[in-house]
Amino acid sequence: MFRILPLNQISARGLARLPPDRYQVAPGIADPHAVMVRSADMHALALPPSVLAVARAGAGTNNIPVAALTKRGIPVFNAPGANANAVKELVLAGLLLAARNVCDAWAFVRALKLEGAALEEAVESGKKKFVGYELPGRTLGVVGLGAVGVEVANAAHALGMKVLGYDPQITVQRAWQLSAGVSQALSVDDLFQRSDMVTLHVPAVAATKGLVNAQRIKLMKPGSALLNFARAEIAVEPDVLAALDAGHLSAYVSDFPSAAGKDHPKVIALPHLGASTGEAEENCAVMVADTLKDFLENGNLRHSVNFPEAIMPRLPNTWRLAIANANVPNMVGQISTALASAGLNIADLLNKSRGDDAYTIIDTDAGVSDATVERVRAIEGVLAVRLL
């Protein structure tokens, strides 16, 4: 029986993917084999040695101590693309809010304490202050072409916008999904120079923090709009606010309110609504539940943010070792030697690496003793070993 600790409320549709005869899911459960989480901050949480995996029912993993878990050989899973449509729809709404001055116009009308002809007259005379522009023909720059970025780029192109995309690490899968009408920017700076509106869809990592700063904003056309539905720290907010005050930027649409920016007249701040739909929550929960189940039962890795994808079909009448290890020379050789010394034949083997870390799956023709598992665990560079 696998024990699962949910740190947030997880969609019932997702939890239904974990059969109750094999999985016990309960808040506060002791010695869990896995943790399921949405937004709970795990950085100060002490995880017991029983934990084998952490599954995030969403895309971002900023609330999870990924580096520390990697050192323990614990994979962290997320749900890439499961909430892409929800975020895409909100980005499209943000484009329209910025282009048509919807929020200011709405506030203007709500503030009118008039009736009848006086109200009509005030509306007609006041609307000229909120003249906007249409999206077709405008150029949208999309920074980051992952699951969300591709959906946004394709939808904006379908609306008649010219679309520029930039992502030096775009995957083959995402490239196939991208509309042929989306043009490639040569660099981030090139994209900022050529766009009327820029939308951000990159993770918050060392290379992207502060990506939008005063220097890049100066490259943008006067009157441009900036949308940030990725992470707050990707844009240097004081630089954005200064550009709004100077009139260089016409609007900043952000899903991450701050004390400094939320009341600025040109800031449209939303309460992190990007993936806040019932459909997105269900999709994310289903994806991570399936991923977690395959890992716990078969040792396969899908959608891991810290270890490589490693999927090997189970062979009948075999025993499986799943090993998280450092990506160093002769690791597979040392593991194979340990198994050979126990008289075990390898029926199938898969070794995948990702940066400094690797993952090895080995099927043997006969049962593996506890002593052999400990011999493998004692190899320098082995982070974690499971016998399935």
Question: Main traits of this protein?
Answer:
Rossmann fold, elongated, Alpha-Beta Plaits, 388 residues, five-stranded parallel β-sheet, alpha/beta, 16 strands
Structural overview:
This protein has 388 residues and is of the alpha/beta class. The chain has a seven-stranded parallel β-sheet, sandwiched between helices. It has a five-stranded parallel β-sheet with strand order 2-1-3-4-5. Strands 14-15-13-16 form a four-stranded antiparallel β-sheet, with helices on one face. It has three domains: 1-83 and 277-306, NAD(P)-binding Rossmann-like Domain (Rossmann fold), CATH 3.40.50; 84-99 and 135-269, 3-Layer(aba) Sandwich (Rossmann fold); 308-388, Alpha-Beta Plaits. Strand 4, helix 2 (66-71) and strand 5 form a beta-alpha-beta unit. The chain is elongated. The protein has 13 helices and 16 strands. The model has no long low-confidence stretch (mean pLDDT 96).
